[in-house]
Structure formats: C-alpha cells, structure tokens
C-alpha cells in the first residue's frame, strides 16, 4: 500500500473490504452498515514529546507528520487499534490485556509460542502417564512439556490464560478497577483452518462468523468463562501488577484438516525437530506458525498470542 | 461508563444515498486507428462480420478494445450486394431489431433519418456501424459531445493526404433535443458540416447541416449513412463539383462507397472508413450511486486510544497528570455491520487530532 498524498487538503480514501464485497455479493440484504469506529494504527504515541523545547504546540509535531497508508481491503488487517470513549476525561491509566504466564500450566513453550499438538501421535492421545508413547513430542519423560496444548484429546492441564487490568505498580491492586474499565467480553479471532476455540473443559465455543479468509471471530463473555480476577494481592500468580478486571482461560482444538492431513503444513509451514518423550531422541515435526488475536469488547485493547501447530512426521 | 469503541449510526440522520454523473473526455486521434500501429491493432475475424479496433497491437495484453466497425445493407436498399450479401443484410437487420425495434406486425423497422418512424420519410439503407466498447462509453455517451472528423479528399490515399478536406459529424442537438422512441434508450441525430480548412469548391452540396446518421447514447452505437461519401448527384451530401470519395474496392482504389458496399467484404469496407477517420472524440458518463455515512464524533468521544504505544505501564503517554486533556489521533474510519464485521475502511491523508474540545463530522462516501 502506498502512502496517501498529504500535501493539500485532507482527503479520505474509502474502500470496501473483501468481507464487505463478499457480503454485498450475497444480495440478501445482509450488507448493512450500522456503526463505525475510529482507528490510529499508524500512530506512535511515544513520539509525543511533552518536553519539547518550543512548547506545547510542538508536542505532537512528529505525530502529525506521520504519513498514512492507503486503506487495506483485508478486513482482518485493518482497525488493529481503535479510539475509545470514556465519560471521564481525567483517566490517567487505562487497562491492558496480558498473557498470564505466572504458572507452568499457562506459560508459553520456551521457543516463544504456545504449541498445539494436532494429533495423538504428536500429543500422546488420551494416554495416562504410564502409557504415553515414547515418540510423543508433547511430553518429556512422561511430563507434559510447558506450553504444549493437546489439540487432539484436549487433555492435560496446560491452557492459555490472559488477564486484564492496570499493569502498573503505582496503584495497588486492592484499589480495584472501576466498573467502566472492566471487560465483560472479548473478541477472539483465529484461523479456522487450523483450530477452534474451546473452554478449558473442552467445550466448543461457536464463532460469531467466518470471514472470507476463513478467520473465525468468537465473542466470549461471562457465559463462556470470563470471570472476575478476585485476587487483590501480588502473590506470584498474577501478571497484572495493579487493579485487576477479568480473566479468561481457553484451549485450542486442532482442526480435522491438521489432524488428518499434512497439506496445510506443506503449504503454509515448515519442518523442524523436537525432543520426543524419551528426552533423548530428536523427532522431525511439521509446524505452522499462526496468531490468535484477543480484543476487549469494551476497551478495544487487543494483543496477539503466537501459536505453533505441531504434527510429528510419521 | 465506557461506550466501547463502536458508535452506532442513525440510519435516518447519518446515512444518505446520492447519485452523481461523472464524465470523462475520450479523444481518439485518427492515427491510432489507421496509422500508428499499422494494422497490428486491427483484428479481423474468420467470420468476417466485423472488424475490431484496439488502442495497441491486440496481441499485447496491454491492448484495450475500443470499438468495432461493420456495415449493413437493408432489404430495401437500391444496392445489390454480391459479396457477403447475406452477412450485410443480417448485420443490418440485427442492428435494426436491437436499436430500432419492430412494427406492430413484428417486422424489423429500418433506421430512420430523422427518427420520426411513424411519418415515414427517408430511411438509412446503406449504413456503417461504429460500436463503441463499454470500456469507453461506460454507462452512456454524454449527449452533445460526439464529434467525428472524416477526411473526404476525393483521391484514395493512405498517407494522410485525404484529410485535406474534412467533414465534421456531431450530435449537435443532443444536449437539448434527443429522441426516446428506441428500445435501447435515448438517441440523437448525427449532422454533418464542413470542417476546417475551407476548401474550394466547398465540400458540402449546400451550406447547411445534413442529417447523416443516428447516435444511440446508452447502446454506444453510431450509425452512419453511406451518403457522407457520395455527391448530391449520387444521393449523397457532397458537392457535385467535388467528387465522390474514392475508396479501395475490389478492382481499384477509385471506387465509390456504393461499389465498395456492393463488391467488397465487410472488413474491406471497414478499412475504407478507418483510413478516413481524422479524429473522434466524445465524453462518456458513469452513473455513480453513493452512500454517504456521516460519522459524527462528539467532543466527549474517542479521546482515548487502544494503540499499544498509547500506554506505558498502563499510564497514558500524552498525559502527565489526570487533569490533562486526553488526546488521540484519527487516521482510519471503519464501517461495521451488526456483528462487528468490518465492511469498509477509510483512511485520512493525515492524522486528525482529537481532544475533548473538538468535534468532527467525517463524511465517508462509498460508491457503487
């Protein structure tokens, strides 16, 4: 995408997204624009210089010179950071959403992503510790490896958890988070070709819709397991340092395509080696790297979770 | 309380539909159709029913089809075509049934010189068709803008000398007077006048405008009478002391248009017209239907951001203390459906500063 000409009057470059065109082409009246949002994804607020020597008029001089890219037509690539409204103009802190890796069961793999073992050969199936195959790479000496999710059986204690709140040491967690900053629901978007969102109990969560690129959009709320984070102390189990809002835990169920076929791995991924259960032998595995995006419905804050889907080469 | 980052649009107040007519000028110099690329941009077909003209050698993927040329001879014509008789008749009838329609008995009507079909009058029996590509005409030709200059210097030549004397054919009355009794929409009468330079003797038989064809605006078809190449004595519009326009026919390069229509194949007739085209220009029209969304941003809205750089350890970077005014910068507008599906995006060409002492209405127009 090129930059927009910013030499004269402000112009607006508007396009339908690929999802918009697809919906419009259905001709069933489902193309109804009912709301809008504002974004600022090109802006780097760290350029806001409150100590500029020339005074307050120059605080944002570098921000205002930011060149703006043409509009993207891919719906999943646009509006990654939004502007948000709060009644109070006196807020100094805003909540964020953050991965909680305070325990082994919620931590990423040492390689820096959550690993999803897509079939029983990779993840060991529903085996008890006594019967875990030697070749399973999700285990090390019969212990589930940190950051490995069993996308086939959904067993094992590992899961993904994110917390929401003010991540600052300047406000005590015991102060609590005001109600208008507490998220009650989150939008989770992930590639539907690779996996599906499930609760930690293994219950499927239905997506709101699939877009034209096969990205599934889920809205999870308190009915799906979003709960208040009632911990008001910094006891080592928390990742948010200040007042806390809600948290959500989930697992990923591997798609049937990944379980039964290597096609997508060949098309989109690569191969590497991992230690198998015997902790001695390296095993060749196929992988696909992907992202899961989580966005707070109320605050609009979003962050990405790196995920690697793993399938042993048989 | 936080209002989330979506704001609902009031369909009654914030969304409006508009219709706009856009026009483009389409200039085609004669050299494109008869010189610049030789015949590499001219495509003839094995069926021989018409000839296609491209703006570049047609074997190139860069070439655009710009118009077709064909000829037709009506059943009532005084000419007795020998070569491709049935094809010329079929072309005439096909174009007539589409552009003029049928009478009450179901017979195909003929092209009428003044468009007054009920009154009878002169019919156009021997005609040349210029079928313009939709790429050029878009939704329709703009009325009153068509102008075709034809070289009518009597001697046949392919070196440009035929353009010393020229006719100008326009839909002169198109902008304020046109006809609607066609099954394919509006059409106007094409008139021929003498174009510069003035010559002696004058090109036209009389100092007047002659009706020489019809222009179908929405269909993008010009129907030209063969009379433009004939002297008044032979039923045309040219000065008798001038001469019939010489054409390259089956036996020589000094044949009349009637001889060409009789004895040449359709593509041969098309070549003769093409080499006489000095200039062609018109404006097209695109009917643009738009939805305009007025995104109203009040003073107390969208003053904070979820941009990851907006916070440092959850603290807002653009504030030093809580009482400082929050500031954000708008670069993008997203338009959503009920389930938060992103249907359209719009980008501002530069960041727009938003604070609690400013309000904006951002007007986003989507064209269909």
Any descriptors?
heterodimer, A: 314 residues, mainly beta, B: 368 residues, 13-stranded antiparallel beta sheet, 21 strands, elongated
Please, could you describe this protein's structure?
- The complex is a heterodimer of chains A (314) and B (368).
- Chain A has 314 residues and is mainly beta.
- Chain A is 9% helix and 31% strand.
- In chain A, the strands form 3 sheets. In chain A, strands 5, 8, 10, 12, 13, 16, 17 and 18 form an 8-stranded mixed beta sheet that branches. In chain A, strands 4, 9, 11, 14 and 15 form a 5-stranded antiparallel beta sheet that branches.
- In chain A, strand 6 and strand 7 form a beta hairpin.
- Chain A is globular and about 70 Å long.
- Chain B is built from 6 helices and 21 strands.
- In chain B, the strands form 4 sheets. In chain B, strands 2, 3, 4, 5, 8, 9, 10, 11, 12, 13, 14, 15 and 21 form a 13-stranded antiparallel beta sheet that branches.
- The radius of gyration of chain B is 30 Å and the shape is elongated.
- The model of chain B has no long low-confidence stretch (mean pLDDT 90).
- Classes of the chains: A mainly beta (314), B mainly beta (368).
Summarize the entry for a quick read.
Chain A is mainly β. Chain A is 9% helix and 31% strand.
- Strand runs of chain A, count: 18
The structural class of chain B is mainly beta
User: What is the radius of gyration of chain B?
Assistant: 30 Å
Task: Label the structural class of chain A.
Answer: mainly beta
Q: Which of globular, elongated, flat, extended, rod-shaped describes the shape of chain B?
A: elongated
Query: What is the helix tally of chain A?
Result: 5
Put simply, the count of helices of chain B is 6
Give the overall pLDDT of chain B as a whole number: 90
Element layout with pairings:
The complex is a heterodimer of chains A (314) and B (368).
Chain A: E1 12-16, H1 18-26, E2 35-39, H2 61-64, E3 83-84, E4 96-99, E5 114-117, H3 120-123, E6 139-140, E7 143-144, E8 148-150, E9 160-165, E10 186-191, E11 195-198, E12 209-210, E13 215-220, E14 227-228, E15 244-254, H4 256-260, H5 263-268, E16 270-275, E17 282-296, E18 302-312
Parallel strand pairs in A: 5-8, 5-18
Antiparallel strand pairs in A: 4-9, 6-7, 9-15, 10-13, 10-17, 11-15, 12-13, 14-15, 16-17, 17-18
Chain B: E1 7-8, H1 11-14, E2 15-29, H2 30-34, E3 42-44, E4 51-54, E5 65-73, H3 85-99, E6 111-112, E7 123-124, E8 126-132, H4 134-137, E9 140-141, E10 147-151, E11 166-170, E12 187-194, E13 210-216, E14 221-225, H5 257-263, H6 266-274, E15 277-297, E16 304-305, E17 311-312, E18 315-316, E19 327-336, E20 342-355, E21 360-367
Antiparallel strand pairs in B: 2-15, 3-4, 4-5, 5-8, 6-7, 8-14, 9-15, 10-11, 10-15, 11-12, 12-13, 13-14, 15-21, 17-18, 19-20
